[in-house]
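new request in #modeling-help
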Amino acid sequence: MTYAVDAKLRPAADADYRAASKWRTRGIGLAMAGLAITSIAFVGNLAAVGQSGVDQASTLAWTFGVTTTGFALTKTAIAVVLWGIILKLWLRADSIKTTLPKLVGTPGVDPKPLGDIDTPFGKATITKKAPGPLPIHKMAKKLFRPMVAMGLMAVMIGLVVSFVAAGSVPNTRALAWMQGLQFLGEGMLLSGISFLLGTILWAIRTAGGEVQESLGVKVYTPKMPGVAKAFVALMMLGLMVSIAQFIGYVVVAGSADPAAAFAWLGPFREFGLGLILAGITLALVAIGNVLGFQFWRVENLIKNGERS
Amino acid sequence: MTTTTSNDFAIDVSKKGLGYNKPQQMGRKLWGPMWVMAIMAFPAAFILGIVRSNAVSSGEAETTVAALGHVTTGVMFIGFTAVFAAISFAIARILGEFRKGGGEVQELVTTEVRTLKMPPTAKIFILGMAMGMMALLIASIAHLVVAAQVSSGSLSLASAETAAITLEAVRRLGVAVYLVAITFGLATIIKVLRFQAIRLRELA
């Protein structure tokens, strides 16, 4: 079962490593569509300045829905591009697997014992065989698709509700549902992106292990760094806040005077997204560290090999 | 160092690896401070939101509520500006690892180090990041200015409301531009991976 899941996360065996990525093109196209939609809402927002009363409230309701949908499309575009990165990472790993034996020749003797070591890129573990995925990798691989799909769905339902709110001013019930749904969707989309970044970390780790194992050398694998642990914690916390704000808006939807609740729910929902974004930053930092570690390992193999 | 094309890629050819370029050096240094700024701004804005909610429920002056609304949004979007900058710098840092590591590996095995020139997507990434950052920063500062004006009485409540709607529009567009810039930054990583997959096999 694990193998079947992993096989879907790799390019086909006959994939051309020279070919341009279609996911890159699709991602950029989707991002531009998201920007175009947000720009339409931007004009609507500016038009609302010259309006008053019901007209203004109506415009503000639909522009909220349309803007958030534009953001969601752009975040989906980011997810699409990240998927393209995963596929290209494997093709690059295949190139390393093909080339490295010729660059190294017979690998040099490695006197380091099995176990933990310090490297310029943090702690690493030396093993005979490539280690399996960490629990967070398994979770990330399974959850990125449902998270992105559910996030998009929530935002789209919120968009429909925003049109309902725009057509029935004043309708605080619809406004509450719109905000809650759309920010739950945004939170899920960002969590999907986080899981994709986790999947990238898995791909780099697994490919690195496979390359070393195929060369017949000891397998060096970086240990999970502090930034990666903080990434997981921030993502989980942010997602929980996104769910909590949704529940908050659902509760407030039935209230006669939601002004006080709206005053804290607005910053609360943005706080949730901020936490997930802070986590995403740390995931990207972890990816940078792991790449640096891999180049360091490849350089050492070449330097210590027979051909050097 | 010479510039040429190889397999549809514009490249620089040199004897030594070129190391990090300027934006990548900046990314390595600045992602941390930006991240710290963001992680401080988000809870601060949330607390301000709670303070404002209390002001609404306890029936405080409308000017106080309006000023608090502007301050909350201003601080929150300083956080978003910082976190998007941190993400952009972290992407630049990844691109830097590819450039530096790729150059060093080639240096070990060949006398001709080929380095991908900055692709158009990377230039759009930097430009978009600068535009998004400016829009968000200007809107955030304007929110704080409006808050000061409305609490001092030099700006009417109606004008403060109009400012809130206008600044909201600017903020939203800034976020969209920033997200598109990040997409372009990540798209650049795909290009670099493809370049390295091809270049590695040339070294064999």
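bot summary: The radius of gyration of chain B is 23 Å.
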